[in-house]
Amino acid sequence: MNGLKANGPKKDLVVQGCFVHSTTDQSMVIREEMVMGLREGKIIFFEPKDKLDELLRSFEMDKENLMVLEKNQFIVPGFIDSHAHAPQYTFMGTGGDLPLIPWLQKYTYPTETLLNADETFAREVYEKCVSRTLRSGSTTVCYYATISATATRILTDII
């Protein structure tokens, strides 16, 4: 499964399978044989799979919008990253041997200067950063950008 895609004019998607989440009372809740209906990115139902036909009729959805997960697949809520520096994507994991100020001088400041000066470079970096973040499971992110309004708008347009 490469990704969930909504179809049709209403952007409907129905996912059937196992869903895993946590609550205040339980660290892990496993709900097997469930169906979740989404319309335009919003959950409109979450019920046992034996109610599927009734739900499809009730919400005027088509079975062509149904994605059935394999036995070894499950859906979890997206992760939340409350502190991500998008300009640092290109040198992630480098310079771990340096103290903060030399690291900023060697990697961060030169990269931010390039991002601020070159819109094509900024778009390329930010597209890759956001794509990787999503592939890693984070669906809500507080991105930090540069002081350039133009480069920052490029990031917000991509998001």
Automatic annotation (TrEMBL):
Top-level division of the source organism's lineage: Eukaryota
Limits of the Amidohydrolase-related domain: 74-146
Family annotation (Pfam families): Amidohydro_1
SUPFAM superfamilies named in the record: Metallo-dependent hydrolases (SSF51556)
Gene3D superfamilies noted in UniProt: Metal-dependent hydrolases, Urease, subunit C, domain 1
Keywords of the record: Hydrolase, Metal-binding, Zinc
InterPro entries in alphabetical order: Amidohydro-rel (IPR006680), Metal-dep_hydrolase_composite (IPR011059), Metal_Hydrolase (IPR032466), Metallo-dep_hydrolases (IPR051607)
GO cellular component terms, A-Z: cytosol
GO annotation terms (biological process): guanine metabolic process
Names of the cofactor(s): Zn(2+)
GO MF, one annotated term: zinc ion binding
Signal peptide range in chain numbering: none
Protein name: Amidohydrolase-related domain-containing protein
Organism for this UniProt entry: Elysia chlorotica (Eastern emerald elysia)
